Queue: 3 jobs
Job 1
Amino acid sequence: MRSMTTTGRFITFEGGEGAGKTTQVRRLAERLRLLGREVVETREPGGSPGAEAMRHILLKGIAKPLGTEAEAMLFAAARDDHMVTTIRPALARGSWVLCDRFIDSTRVYQGALGNVDPRLIRELEHVVVGTDMPDLTLVLDVPPETGLARVHARGEATNRFEEENLQYHRELRTAYREIAEGEPERCLLIDASQSPEVVAVRIWMAVQERLLRPLREGQAPRAAG
Ligand code: Z5A
């Protein structure tokens, strides 16, 4: 959690395929820039040259034969480079960091769905993220049928995770909802089946209430869970 004397804030966007994370990162960044905030838009896996190189290996399924535990460690290694190279320096400058996927993706994809021991997942988080947890995590919630239809309508090649079956995507949604329920101080579940405009308004209200108002009033953001 950031201190009240630091103006930078760290927001992560989570959810299943086609939930609208990338769209909403862009919209929130535009709103914050209009307020004069410096904003860094980033993503995982990726967000730094080293991590972007690893993204290719992870999303093409090249690491899949190594097993989900090894994949979790590779996602963590990419995150470590991202933290060191991009996220921590941006927060230290007072920038707002908006990140498309972060630790909850590892908890859900490798942990809940990949059966990686939660103790290993937590230990990797502890080593890589430490106390630099997100101030706010927006979990965009959409029925998997809707999200996958959006992704397929784009007509781009699918990645290793998008190719899993519908039951897999239903379990992903359940796992995300459980995280949001379990950590209400850090996470907020957003109904992402609405239009992009409606979802953006809901997100903007949450950011104002949870982060901008406390900042104006000289308080630290609500404690991360
Ligand atoms: N992964 C992991 O396993 N472990 C980890 O630790 C991490 C990641 C960090 C990254 O995929 C994969 O890595 C991910 C988990 C795994 N699995 N998958 N797949 P990615 O970055 O390639 O894909 P993604 O993160 O799932 O993004 P996406 O499929 O592009 O979805 P999105 O960002 O949520 O949605 P979008 O790009 O904003 O929108 C998708 C389309 O829907 C687009 O045409 C929009 O114009 C449209 N859209 C957006 N919002 C709406 C609304 N509200 N209504 C209608 N249409 C909309």
Job 2
Amino acid sequence: MKSGQRRILIVEDEEAIATGLRFNLQAEGYDAFVLPDGPSTLSYLDEHPGSLDLVLLDLMLPGMSGYEICRSIRETEDILPIMVLSARTLTEDKAHAFDCGADQYMTKPFAIPELMSRVRNLLARNERLIRIGESKARNQAKENYLFGNVEVDFRQFQVIRDGETHQLTTLEMQLLSYFIDHANDVLSRSRILKDVWDTSVEVSTRTIDNFVMRLRKYIEADPTNPQHLISVRGTGYRFVPDVDG
Ligand code: CA
């Protein structure tokens, strides 16, 4: 995953708006820059694929409309967040922008605090998507894992216990996969939080306890008396695959 400053492209032909946006984004610590039209945007993306974290896109631009630019970006960048900033307030314009692959639409004039909040939100969502993609790719490569009466299918996100199939969510699968990778180790809640959850998001350690309770329902014959996913008093948890051994 990319680290450090988030790179934001502003596609805007009105210099005053472009400069104001760039200034405000830079003040928030983003690496923001401006391109004035579609052709320069598309050739930039051609030369620097995957380099952007967010695009702020005007609709009324010389030569090529924002809609066309949006559609072209989507042909190569499937999850790059795109937020349209436009003076057009009609529902049809918004709908068309979304049909072209825009994630958000803000009408001009806009309030900077709301824009910044939307920017943060889109960037965080993008990072979650990238992380989920990476974790899915890792799971695709994993063989099924067997312990006790349980079979874990990493590809299908399933746990099969005594012939009963449980469907797991992405985060549940990530957590179970993490326990399996660290079998027999005592894992503190803070370590689990750091390794499995995104530390940029506020997650209480109680969340881990709730997730462990859910995992126990899938993997334990008696969730109230766990044999595999053991609580370690004052610390966290320990996954024990081989109970008899
Ligand atoms: Ca314009």
Job 3
Amino acid sequence: MNAVYPGSFDPVTLGHMDIIHRAANISERLTVAILNNPAKKSMFTVDERIEMLRHACQVLPNVEVVSFRGMLAEFVRGIDSQVVIKGVRNHRDFEYENQMAQFNKMLNSNLETLFLPASTALSLISSSAVKEIATLGGDVSKMIPQNVYNKILQKLSRV
Ligand code: PNS
């Protein structure tokens, strides 16, 4: 199976990394696809997000990191994949992701969405919480990969 794990990854968290490791383990090839949406305000540029994710995934030989624009259903078709993997932390994630999965199926009938339950210890982590806590001076070192932590400190000029 050639699977796609899409997201904003602004920035990638340890919750995302857990899903990436587990998805890579059950896939021949995993494409981590960062949505490039200029309309959405982000802390990190797409190039910064690609760099951070590539660094965090360098030990995983079957994982590649790319960005995409537009519709996920079209991106997946364009790279000859038919499987999208999503991590689900709680019932709110499930309701939202289930709706997305139905839309994506309508847009590309070949596409299947697989949900991986978030590991309990990581299920509170979100990119938005990381950004808020870090901006307010809190310690996010246990929520994100080390290279991302260094990058956040740089961005917030705390090094
Ligand atoms: O990490 P996120 O922000 O939850 O990721 C959301 C993402 C990028 C997976 C989702 O917004 C997406 O697939 N966007 C692409 C646009 C699209 O295909 N929209 C129609 C699906 S309903």
